[in-house]
Specification:
The complex is a heterodimer of chains A (351) and B (162). With 351 residues, chain A is of the alpha+beta class. Chain A is built from 12 helices and 10 strands. Chain B has a two-stranded antiparallel ribbon with strand order 1-2. Helix content of chain B is 48%, strand content 9%. In chain B, a hairpin with a 2-residue loop joins strand 1 and strand 2. Chain B is elongated and about 75 Å long. The chains are: A alpha+beta (351), B mainly alpha (162). At the A-B interface, helix 5, strand 6, strand 7, helix 7 and strand 9 of A face strand 1, helix 2, helix 6 and helix 7 of B.
Chain lengths: 351, 162
């Protein structure tokens, strides 16, 4: 398995399948873990960080977390490769741009990724398409058990799993879903929906993680409480208090749009598809904006000329690093805009 | 490229492209203006903000700023500055200041009730002993006291294997 192979497909999280996939793009769970008897990463010198990275790399590769595992030494990887991993949600932006010894282990199907030496010694995640948190949690617990059999984790009777940032302490568990909410955005009800979400103990981010804009009407929603609840409770609360409301609001907004402004939805979706099929130069923002409207059109049954899978893939494969990796060359933004437009036309059957 | 908010000049974090009647309209707004225009929602509490808030809350308390971890050497003031702890023992060393902050951030909870590692090697005292040995080893090497360093290294190995 090579890194270059990744750039050609969409990977698990944009498969466009799974429960509730019209609104929920993907489900993600992550655990933060640190080694016992070792300072947290920021307090370690480069030599010690290197030692930790080597050791964890060895243990992860020996733990049998998946049939096939790719380990990428991030400190040695090119900027393009690092960007590719960020676009695929396999590493964080922070992990990509840091300068200390660090890496990531990725399962062959990309459903599992373990960052070594991010903010914590270990940050592991499991991704699933659609709304499938229960399965994702089962997956991450299996990986955690496999690693725990080989490593001593920093653990405290009162505070649980100890993390560098106290906002992760306890279970170290963060559950999140990536939502596509174009109708709520269009009807202007999105703020209301977020406000109404019970108790608001959630964080909202864009498609590519913390600090990114919510381009393409994608919103990542996650829990904030990590201490004082069991893992099962955290998932249960998130699944019953948070997610159904968003799904319901979005679906209601879609129904209302079709009922009251059907022609407007048709117009937006079909115009967007036409623009994508005709464009000769197109940047990432416009691509995301248009794809979002096409996706909405498909999901409300007003557009059947393209399938959901292609649209989902295009969200990812038109990102800068993916485009360059597919074409196997470095491109300046202007050239990228041309290459992106050409690729989109080909995928949408316009050329 | 850093853009300023179209309305108030603060750094823009929300970038919106709308295509209406064939015209592309770009908007660049800061979080506050975007929220007031109804484009985005001010997230209830980004995690970083949450931390910042609870760190600031205790900023005025004189007694907490003197706290220092004897294992990794981090002071509470340094933690407040960078938002990250230095070692597992900081949770003990800073407990009096950290505990109320944690409760505030964690819906009043202060006790872990989730998963527990199956391996017995994770008790706090042993962890701290290893951390202290590591710190001593580092000092011995820095002072070129290699005889002492070798002894410490052996003890560390022994501890880690137990």
């Amino acid at each position: 398995m090579k890194l270059a192979d990744l750039a050609c497909g969409a990977g698990e999280w944009l498969r466009g399948a799974g429960p509730m996939h019209d609104v929920v793009i993907s489900s993600r769970v992550r655990l933060a873990r640190n080694l016992a008897g070792v300072p947290f990463l920021v307090q370690c010198g480069p030599e010690h960080q290197n030692e930790i990275e080597q050791r964890l790399r060895r243990e992860i590769l020996a733990a049998g977390i998946a049939r096939e595992v790719l380990y990428v030494d991030i400190a040695a990887a090119s900027e393009l490769d690092r960007q590719l991993l960020v676009e695929r949600h396999l590493i964080s932006r922070q992990h990509s741009t840091a300068s200390h010894p660090r890496g990531v282990a990725i399962s062959g199907d990309e459903t599992c990724a373990i960052m070594v030496n991010e903010e914590d010694h270990l940050r592991m995640q499991v991704l699933r398409s659609g709304l499938d948190l229960a399965d994702a949690v089962a997956g991450i617990m299996r990986v955690d058990d496999l690693l725990e059999a080989r490593l001593d984790y920093a653990f405290h009777g009162k505070y649980g799993y100890l993390t560098a940032c106290p906002t992760n302490v306890g279970t170290g568990l963060r559950v999140s879903v990536m939502l596509h909410l174009p109708a709520l955005k269009m009807t202007g009800e999105i703020e209301k929906a977020f406000r109404a979400a019970h108790d608001m103990r959630l964080a909202i981010r864009g498609l590519f993680g913390e600090g990114t804009e919510a381009g393409g009407d994608f919103f990542q929603v996650s829990n904030q409480t990590t201490l004082g609840k069991t893992e099962e409770q955290i998932v249960h609360d998130f699944l019953t208090e948070m997610v159904p409301q968003f799904i319901q609001y979005e679906r209601r907004a879609r129904e209302a749009l079709i009922k009251r402004r059907g022609a407007a939805v048709d117009d937006k979706a079909k115009r967007s598809l036409a623009l994508l099929r005709a464009a000769r130069l197109i940047n990432t923002d416009e691509t995301m904006y248009l794809l979002s409207l096409v996706r909405l059109g498909i999901n409300v049954g007003r557009l059947d000329e393209v399938d959901l899978k292609t649209v989902n893939e295009l969200f990812l494969l038109t990102q800068p690093a993916h485009l360059q990796k597919m074409l196997n060359k470095q491109l300046e933004p202007d050239d990228r805009a041309e290459a992106r437009a050409r690729y989109i036309r080909r995928r949408l059957g316009a050329d | 490229m850093k853009r300023e908010c179209d309305k108030c000049g603060k750094p823009a974090t929300v970038h919106l492209t709308e295509i209406a009647d064939g015209n592309k309209i770009e908007k660049h707004l800061c979080e506050d203006c975007a929220a007031s225009e109804g484009i985005t929602v001010k997230t209830s509490m980004p995690i970083s903000q949450l931390l910042e808030d609870f760190i600031l809350q205790s900023a005025g308390r004189e007694e907490t700023s003197d706290l220092r971890c004897d294992v990794c050497g981090l002071s509470f003031a340094e933690f407040r500055h960078r938002g990250l702890l230095g070692c597992p023992n900081d949770y003990e060393a800073f407990a009096e200041a950290l505990d109320p902050m944690l409760r505030q951030a964690q819906e009043g909870a202060g006790q872990h009730i989730g998963k527990v590692p199956r391996r017995a090697g994770s008790d706090q005292e042993k962890q701290n002993a290893i951390l202290r040995l590591r710190a001593q080893l580092k000092q011995a090497v820095a002072a070129e006291n290699y005889e002492q360093a070798a002894k410490l290294r052996d003890r560390l190995k022994e501890m880690e294997q137990k």
